Amino acid sequence: MQLTFAFVVFLSSCSKDAEPPSPPVITPPLTGTPEIKITTLLSNQGIIWGFDVLPNGNLLFTQKAGTMQLFDTTTQNNTMITGLPSNISTVGQGGLLDVAISPDYATSRNVFVTYSITGGFLSLAKFTLNGNVATNWQVILTTESASTWNGHFGSRIAFGPDGKLYWSVGEGGTASLGGASSPHQNGQRLNTLWGKIHRLNLDGTIPNDNPLLPGQTAPSTIYSYGHRNPQGMAFQTSTGRLFVNEHGPSGGCELNRVQAGENFGWPLYSNGINYNGTPISNGHNATGIVAPLKSWTPALAPAGLTFINHTSYKDWNGNMLMGSLGRRQLLMISMANGVPGNETILLENIGRVRNVKMGPAGKIYVSVEDGGRLLELTAK
After folding, report:
1. Fewer Cβ atoms within 10 A, N terminus or C terminus of the chain?
2. pTM listed for this prediction
């Protein structure tokens, strides 16, 4: 619109007798239901746990098996990334997990990655991408204890509008059992990295404005706590609000809006029950505990979270997308004034959806475990 208006002004200034310029044409937003085209970019790649888009449009993706590859969207070729650490452990739910391109990549060429290591510990690291080589590997944080059953690592990375890095970490520990008498209280313990959302500066230091939590004399990396297994995390484009989804036990999967210093209750509170059938709590409401915005029973095992951010998606623009491992679906959740509403199943019976992410130019990427696929969705 601005270009059209400037052009009209230029023409009128070239002719003394020209008519007054017309007002700029305002194009209304596209409305209606978009027609979606689905393209399979990759297949037979194992479990594509995390991926992100480089400034040139190429895709960097991790494989749970402990490898990372660069997909050239022009040539359609993969290149293996070398220089990864040798202590990546793929036991249980672990492996090479999330990957995220640093907001300052244009100058730093830094990439952040999370992975489990030998013994069941979880690490957050960054490296410099030089061609197909990961150089200057720097471990930023490693859990001080192990997930001895190699489960519930969580481990998504998101960058906030404040320029900070947010990292979700599951409860870890020796097992998963909810309730006041559970011996697995990592989510409530503020002396462990497990069961938290962490907030860091891009250099790995602690932001001065991180919340001061009960018993602390200075801020730590902990931004929120009481989380069980958060495997989807994203900032809403229009509001800058942080949303997280996480696995419940038998039922009680959650969608939460996360704010500084909040306690989300696990393992003391859940809308689900333990796998052995024993109760956890009478609902999720208690003083000082944040209840989920949405809860699902039976469990859907949510994984991946993003927001549609392109006008080509018409009425869908601004809505939330979320994968489901258990129900093998891609879900869309309508958003109104930052509040989640009705759900629509966009893709069904396509396999275990591990991750979903909004990319540039209106492209949405979805990784599906079955067939080791990476899908590209565009609105026609």
Report:
1. C
2. 0.92
